[in-house]
Amino acid sequence: MHRYRSHTCGELRAADVNTDVRLSGWLHNRRDLGGILFIDLRDHHGITQLVARPGTAANEALSHLTKETVVRVDGTVRSRGAENVNPDLPTGEIEIEVTEVEVLGAAEQIPFTINAEDGVNEERRLEYRFLDLRRERMHRNIMLRSAVIAAIRQKMTARGFNELATPILSATSPEGARDFLVPSRLHAGKFYALPQAPQQFKQLLMIAGFDRYFQIAPCFRDEDARADRSPGEFYQLDMEMSFVEQEDVFQVIEQVMTELFEEFGNGRHVTSPFPRIPFREAMLKYGSDKPDLRALLELVDVSAVFADSGFKAFAGKHVRALAVPDTAGQSRKFFDGLGEYAVEQGAKGLAWVRVGENNELSGPIAKFLIEDDVKALTEALGLVPGHAVFFGAGEFDEVSKIMGAVRVEAAKRAGHFEENVFRFCWIVDFPMFEKNEDTGQIEFSHNPFSMPQGGLEALNTMDPLDILAWQYDIVCNGVELSSGAIRNHEPDVMYKAFEIAGYSKEDVEREFGGMLRAFKFGAPPHGGIAPGVDRMVMLLADEPNIRETIAFPLNGNAQDLLMGAPSEVDESRLKELHLSLRKPAL
Known about the structure:
By secondary structure, the protein is an alpha+beta fold. 28% of the residues lie in helices and 24% in strands. The termini are far apart.
């Protein structure tokens, strides 16, 4: 028999009754019923119940061991009997009558329970992450992540993509976030940067003629944490294709995402094909460029209705309305609750009216609306009795943010929200440039390496703020999975685009010399995207926080509480790297 086990803790069944076996695992739980010990033994594969009879050496040994001690046990498989079967366990028909016990790894008193979710705080969980990962939910999430990555590799390879590695140590690049810098020992005063994304390298692979590339790529960005963003590092399905247009990229990703989410979505439906929604339309209808389409409500711009209105609170402002049907049975609590929610999002309040019989309006602002206002709103919103209408007024961006959140919340509270479904969409036609409100400077609004729609002619003849780019985002259930683009591969277009954004020719050649040089030696049209693996698994696992799908994440303050990073280094190491420290004054 093997030194440690003949079977795993998830393997034995009724057919194995009366077989002598050896198992190894962690002491998951223990119950003493009149001197008879029942032990749940856990390993990676599952749980098997052990039984130790009174007066036996096994009973004596197991009764004194702390939970999470690692043991080897020998014993015989016994049937539990029909009345004692545990239908929640694959091994629930049997138990092991233990004859011998060996302690393989003693355990101190554990700081929190493993066999139950006991509400321990996240800092404690991350400090003892190796214990936290033993919990069923966390173990399941990490194994889901492994399975998803394996499936991605299979699906991409089947579609003719080649998995190629790109450098981790590289040059700094303006990807939109702060770089993590690595000082050079050999080149005093110079730094490598960890890649925010393999953007330039994957484009260089296309120029080198590899046609279809992918990678489960590690990316590093020094940015603050959010529920859907882990500070420090993350992983993405990085892909690029040559001789393609936007729709070619969409077809590949739609197929891969649909298959993945159907395979691992635990029965949740994937809506397909994914709708294409222009950026400006998304902002108007949903108040967001990452809309949650499970909310079956849309916003409507009614600014024109109130442009010359006597209702001073709305006059001359951007006004967005949300019509919610079937609210006749809703109490005042429904309306007050949404108002409170809007205030939490930053609003000063939430104006609303109800539509009663004969389309008569009631509610806090109904008395301020003249007959023409009511008629125009009825036509614009398709109002009928039973509708409630909520309004937001102010600056475009502010109203979009607040009313976008209210749209989703109202749909949930009023029963117009789809559950158990993955609703994907593409957001397309992003503006190439935007104006910095503080400086008035024209800046790139998205990826600077994107191809402008209309090419060089558009850059030369159009108002920069009217130029659209071949840029796109893929969104699922209100979570942005990735941005992508058809890339600019023409040097003249690159020079001109950066000139509009305030870069000189010399700036471009200094910052992007390698890319620019490659473009001058025959570059194919190409494009790609990079959906985040962490966010995909977060959605599939139905977890609210991305850190629940990463084995060893940093906390919200970008600290590794288990390994103690970031850490100080001694003076000799700093000297070797040609560095001196200047700490901020306390």
